[in-house]
Write a structure and sequence with these properties.
This protein is α/β, with parallel strands linked by helices and 275 residues long. The chain is built from six helices and 14 strands. The N and C termini lie far apart (41 Å).
Length: 275
């Protein structure tokens, strides 16, 4: 297979299972905090709980905003934790990421650059929605063409599409300014492929699970601070850091659950007005 494509084996029941980690916002220095939360501590606590749960997965999906300060050290910390797992990690960038440092650190750690994951019943496609220097997202013509090519290649397989930015409103006015700006183009394309069953993102630091035509739209909490749902103005939520497990079933269904740490230790600065 090409560098951008890899094969994943299913389990004995034909199921493809993943752990999603998103929006870690790590700093190079151990004391780095985001709005009162030490993002290294919260990330390591999440990974510790993941290890304790001993869930069987085929791979980890990292959906962007891995670093807050663009440092090589922050990406190396993330890569180190991924190396502690026996399963491969696949990634895409978020608006806060610096891709040269990200790619260099992950390449050194042996984290695969593959953006098309193919299994017996499913394929998973990872897209880059980053627009350098701004918080909103956009899919380039090249990314949309890559998506179309991947879907045309395996019309018999169900598909899950991953991106960092949210493609439908989250219900937070301040946050929905920073969504995927050409979501209509994406939905027009996906509407031509009924085998696409879901979109999975990060970015909004809260849980989402909505139906949009044939698509299940999922977003996953951050491993650090959480944004308060349905808030027009910037506000932090008191819920704890989170992560998601996904099981892609042979019949095209998606079985998924969000898990969280205790929010009391990671609620952040309640008076924060932005970041």
């Amino acid at each position: 297979m090409t560098q951008n494509k890899t094969q994943l084996d299913v389990d004995a029941d034909g199921v493809l299972t993943f752990l999603q980690i998103t929006d870690t916002h790590l700093f190079g220095k151990p004391e780095g905090e985001l709005l009162g939360v030490n993002t290294r501590d919260s990330f390591l606590a999440v990974m510790g709980e993941v290890a304790a749960q001993k869930r069987s997965i085929q791979a980890v999906l990292a959906t962007g905003d891995i670093s807050q300060d663009h440092s090589s050290e922050s990406y190396a910390l993330f890569a180190e934790q991924m190396q502690n797992l026996s399963e491969p990690c696949f990634w895409l960038p978020g608006n806060h990421d610096f891709q040269p440092a990200m790619m260099s650190a992950f390449d050194q750690a042996g984290i695969a650059p593959a953006k098309q994951l193919v299994s017996e019943y499913w394929q998973v496609i990872l897209l880059d929605t980053q627009v350098m220097g701004v918080p909103h997202g956009q899919l380039s013509t090249a990314q949309l063409e890559m998506l179309k090519t991947a879907l045309d290649e395996y019309p018999e397989k169900y598909a899950l599409v991953l991106l960092h930015h949210h493609a439908i409103p989250a219900g937070c006015a301040w946050l929905d300014q920073h969504d995927l700006k050409n979501a209509d183009e994406l939905f027009d394309l996906l509407g031509q492929y009924q085998q696409v069953k879901g979109l999975l993102c990060g970015h909004i630091h809260q849980e989402m699970d909505q139906q949009y035509d044939q698509l299940r739209l999922l977003a996953t909490p951050s491993t650090c601070i959480q944004f308060k749902p349905n808030s027009d103005e910037f506000a932090l939520d008191k819920q704890g850091p989170g992560w998601r497990y996904l099981a892609l079933l042979p019949n095209g269904n998606i079985d998924t659950q969000v898990h969280r740490l205790n929010g009391a230790f990671y609620s952040g600065d309640a008076d924060a007005t932005g970041y």
